[in-house]
Amino acid sequence: MSDGAATPSPRLDGKVALVTGASRGIGRAIAQRLAAAGATVVVTARSQGSPAPQQRFGKTEHVAGTLDETVALIVKAGGTAISLPADLEDANALAMLVPRAIEIAGRLDILVNNAGFADYARVEDMPADTFGRTVLHYIQVPFALAQASVPAMRASGAGWIVNIGSVTALSPIRPYPDYARAGGDTVYAATKAALNRFSQGLAAELLDANIAVNVVAPSTAIRTPGASALIPEDYPTEDVAYLAETVLAMCHLPASERTGQIAYSMHWPATHALAVKTLDGRETMPAAIPPAWSHPAIDTAVTQ
């Protein structure tokens, strides 16, 4: 880990970012932090004025959080945000999302693929629809939005794509702990592992175009309205501000200096002496300390 002075947060003035799944949780936090750094943030999700119904765990549920709330938080903090509702499971809405974002914001510099669908089940019990939706959200959607974003980024001479990953992409610890033997996250984890490899390959393809592609994942777990049901009540989760700051760190340097990274929210700031700010950018958080219970393979998985 670095012993030097903390690295100051970058500015994104004049940049436009598109953040998916921004009605709550991690997506909302990322949108707030990018806006606090000066970016105009286009926030998208299905829930605009009220929470949209979703099918999960075999039932219909409404999870708190809307785009209107996210925009209000950003504006209150002095930032700029534009709401652009879209259902990424709708092929037409997915195809039109990037063109519409560019139309309303004038350009696109940053794409954050955060939106997700987590419906855990053991492989032997998982419905085909759940499998298909998981693959769609974590492979097909990032592919489609990255593909649609590249021409605009090429035209402006630079761009940044950040895919939100997961520590579950790493192999289960041996001997297998009880939660791994109980199962449920295998398909989700497999798509996140594929997302890592997709991101690193895309980083190589786009290096000469000065378009950086990186992955940012929680070092352990972040309690959000959508993920809370999947996290034991007594599990020590981490503050989302560390992940949001790590995303910001992936959105300003030339691709020649930072691309193809798999960065973890507590490990990256600690390793790079990164000053972590609150989501509004006004206060400094305590220095990041990677949790002792985080996956032991993270240190070797983080590329330098």
From TrEMBL:
Gene3D superfamilies cross-referenced by the UniProt entry: NAD(P)-binding Rossmann-like Domain
InterPro entries reported in the protein's UniProt record: KR_dom, NAD(P)-bd_dom_sf, Sc_DH/Rdtase_CS, SDR, SDR_fam
A Pfam family per the record: adh_short
Source domain of life: Bacteria
GO-annotated biological processes: monocarboxylic acid metabolic process
SMART domains cross-referenced by the UniProt entry: PKS_KR
Family statement: Belongs to the short-chain dehydrogenases/reductases (SDR) family.
Name of the protein in its database record: SDR family NAD(P)-dependent oxidoreductase
